Amino acid sequence: MLQDSMRRLSKLSIADQAIVICNEEHRFLVRGQLKEVGLSCKSIILEPVGRGTAAATVIAALAAMNIRDDSLILVLPADHIIQSQAGFSSALKIARIAERMNHFVAFGAPPNRIETGYGYLRLGEEVASKVYRVSEFVEKPDARTAEEYLLEGSWHWNSGIFLLPAKTFLDEVKAFEPDMFRHCCSAYQGAQLDGEFFRLEESNFKLCRTDSIDRAVMEKTNRALVVLLNAGWSDGGSWQSLWEIGQKDDDGNVSHGDVITLETRNTYIHSDRRLITTLGVDDLVIVDSRNAVLVMQRDRAQDVDKVVAELTETGRVEHEEHCKVYRPWGSYEVVDRGEGFQVKRITVNPNGRLSLQAHQRRSEHWIVVSGSAVVTSGQETFSLKENESTFIPSGTRHRFENQGKEDLMLIEVQTGSYFGEDDIIRYEDDYGRNSTDL
Question: CATH class for domain 2-235?
Answer without folding.
Answer: alpha beta
